[in-house]
Amino acid sequence: MDRDNNMLSKIQDKLVVSCQALPEEPLHSPFIMGRMAYAAFLGGAGGIRANSVEDIHEIKKHVDLPIIGIIKRVYDDCDVFITPTLKEIDELCAEGVDMIALDATDRIRPDGSTISELFPMIREKYKNQLFMADCSTYEEAMKAAELGFDCVGTTLSGYTEATKGKSLPDFELVEKLVKNSSVPVISEGGISTPEELKRMYELGVNAAVVGSAITRPMDITKRFMKAVRKQEG
Ligand SMILES: CC(=O)N[C@H](C=O)[C@@H](O)[C@H](O)[C@H](O)COP(=O)(O)O
Questions:
Q1: Beta pairing partners, 15
Q2: Cα 17 to averaged position of ligand 1 atoms, centre (Å)
Q3: 103-140: per-residue pLDDT in tens?
Q4: Which of 183, 140, 184, 159 is nearest to 47 (CA)?
Q5: How far apart are the CA of 217 and the centre of ligand 1, in A?
Q6: Could you give the CA distance from residue 50 to residue 68 in angstroms, rounded to a whole number?
Q7: In a 3-state reduction of DSSP, which class is residue 178?
Q8: E-state strands within 159-213
Q9: Its family (predicted)?
Q10: Given a cut of 80, is residue 156 above it in pLDDT?
Q11: Which of 97, 160, 171, 187 could link 208 by a cystine bridge, Cβ 3.0 to 4.6 Å?
């Protein structure tokens, strides 16, 4: 894979659809994620974000779109779960994905390292692989760009101690990053309407990722029900 062939230009101004279902979710199945990705492709998606080698392998059979791959893995006593260690990076590289996303927050990782310690090792081992930094704050994203990540994402805003309770999507963070980041910005997390997506592009993101609002029917159902209950209430 060539870092210069630039998957980032392929997804520029496109919608990346996140097709994920964890073991505890009703749609957990590589078969279903493959069909979900195909539906996203037919709907006009320009890229897919997916979790696990099994799902990615299946998705590749159905769509020829750039893939942002992650492995969500929970380690004891650790909050970092999106591609937390070199082991998950190795697994994704062995499968082959256009870009790998990993937690780039300032939290301690399962092996006790920080992203500033781990990422240089990853970059050294996989010189031509594209990497996306899943961040929760402006400072983390700035640090990630400095470390050599190829792009920064707002994926974890609202999900860390420092950002808990933030209203999503985090337009403020996106705006600040687009103005100041030296690498492309990917908006991800909490985009739930086409209007919000449009606003992200107007702010100047390279691309935006939408997940739950498109691919998690249980959550979508809950949103509808909440609105109805409110009215009844
Ligand atoms: C925090 C976390 O675990 N985020 C995950 C990252 O891959 C996914 O569960 C999200 O669905 C994805 O980021 C897209 O966001 P949203 O589903 O809000 O459109």
A1: 208
A2: 10
A3: 999 999 999 999 999 999 999 999 999 999 999 999 99
A4: 184
A5: 14
A6: 6
A7: helix
A8: 185-188, 207-210
A9: Belongs to the NanE family.
A10: yes
A11: 187
* Residue 230, both tokens: 């409110």
Amino acid occupying residue 188: E
* Strand 130-134 with 151-153, pairing: parallel
Return the CA Rg of the chain.
17
* Tokens matching residue 165: 């309770």
Q: State the pLDDT at residue 5.
A: 63
Judge if the beta carbon of residue 83 lies within 6 A of ligand 1: no
Cα–Cα distance, 196 to 190 (Å, whole number): 9
Q: Is the CB of 158 under 6 A from ligand 1?
A: no
Closest CA to 40 of 216, 214, 227: 214
Query: What's the CATH code of the domain at 89?
Result: 3.20.20.70
**Number of domains composing the chain:** 1
Ligand 1: centre distance to CA 174 (Å): 16
**ipTM score of the complex?**
0.99
CB atoms < 10 A from the CB of 22, how many?
Answer: 11
H or E element in which residue 180 lies: helix 171-180
Stated pTM of the model: 0.96
